[in-house]
Amino acid sequence: MTPGVRPLVAGNWKMNGLSASLAEIKAMREAVDAGKAGAAELAVCPPATLLAQAAWTLKGGKVSLGGQDCHAKESGAYTGDIAASMIKDAGAQYVIVGHSERRQYHGETDAAVKAKAEAGLKAGLVAIVCVGETRTEREAGKAIEVVSTQVRGSLPASGGPDTVVVAYEPIWAIGTGLTPTPADVAEVHAAIRRLLGEIYGAAGAKVRILYGGSVKPANAKELLGLANVDGALVGGASLKAVDFLAIAATYL
Ligand code: PEP
């Protein structure tokens, strides 16, 4: 945790969720609005097809909404893509960019991620920029080097606590049930914090740095209590309100 920074617990639903899943979002809203979910801000990032309906479900409440990706351009002939302004228009406040699954399956480079993050900011969204090393890179002792290169290359040029969130997600920990040791998480988050200071100056001290990768109710307390860990980006465990809320309850 960083003193004076409100944590963010964001749920990335990936390619999961039909309209029936709005019941989970409704349950999240009810718990948060009733003050039962703790002090962190909660955000849910369903697939694009559910954004507008989710926005209606969340309207007037305290749970935030995010998209999972956006195009770098404002509009144009990009069949199947979604502009940041469309995500904003659907009712979202956040957009995830540079998730490792986008980097891996869609060949997104740091420069592409940076362009998407900047498009998000231009549209009035907060960009959640994901970074993280592979298992091979970690075993080769290169985690800090890899993550530092990604941070330098992927973050929008101008930003701060109100526009940028960084999510450290070791690729080998995503969806695997594996997590780095608390010491390893703390080491990478400290390195990201130093870089944020270099990039954004004093404002970098308050930019939220989330940990992501197999966060579950059982390990949330240990991971989210570390220095410079200002919340979590949660995949699988965010699909069910009961699990997601149990993770958020770390901040009760
Ligand atoms: C993710 O995909 O952002 C993620 C952290 O997934 P999981 O929590 O399922 O590991």
Architecture overview:
- This protein has 252 residues and is an alpha/beta fold.
- It has a domain at 8-21 and 104-251: Alpha-Beta Barrel (TIM Barrel).
- Helix content is 39%, strand content 15%.
- It has 10 helices and 8 strands.
- The protein has helices at 22-33, 51-58, 84-90, 100-105, 110-122, 135-139, 143-154, 182-200, 217-224, 241-248, and strands spanning 8-12, 41-45, 64-67, 94-97, 126-131, 164-168, 208-212, 231-234.
- The chain has an 8-stranded parallel barrel with strand order 1-2-3-4-5-6-7-8, surrounded by 7 helices.
- Strand 3, helix 3 and strand 4 form a beta-alpha-beta unit.
- Helix 7 (143-154) packs parallel to helix 8 (182-200).
- It is globular, with a radius of gyration of 17 Å.
- The two termini are 14 Å apart.
- Phosphoenolpyruvate (PEP) binds at residues 12, 169, 174-175, 212-215, 233-237.
Text of the CATH class of the domain at 8-21 and 104-251: Alpha Beta
Average of the residue pLDDT scores: 97
Largest sheet: 8 strands, parallel, barrel
Which structural class matches the secondary elements?
alpha/beta
**Order of secondary-structure elements:** EHEHEHEHHEHHEHEHEH
Q: Order of strands across the biggest sheet?
A: 1-2-3-4-5-6-7-8
**What is the count of β-strands?**
8
- Can you count the helices? 10
CATH homologous superfamily assignment of the domain at 8-21 and 104-251: Aldolase class I
Q: Assess the beta-strand content as a share of residues.
A: 15-25%
CATH topology of the domain at 8-21 and 104-251: TIM Barrel
Overall helicity = 25-40%
List all distinct small molecules, including ions and cofactors, that are bound in this structure. phosphoenolpyruvate
Any idea what the CATH architecture of the domain at 8-21 and 104-251 is?
A: Alpha-Beta Barrel
Cα distance spanning the termini: 14 Å
Oligomeric state of this protein: single chain
**What's the overall geometry?**
globular
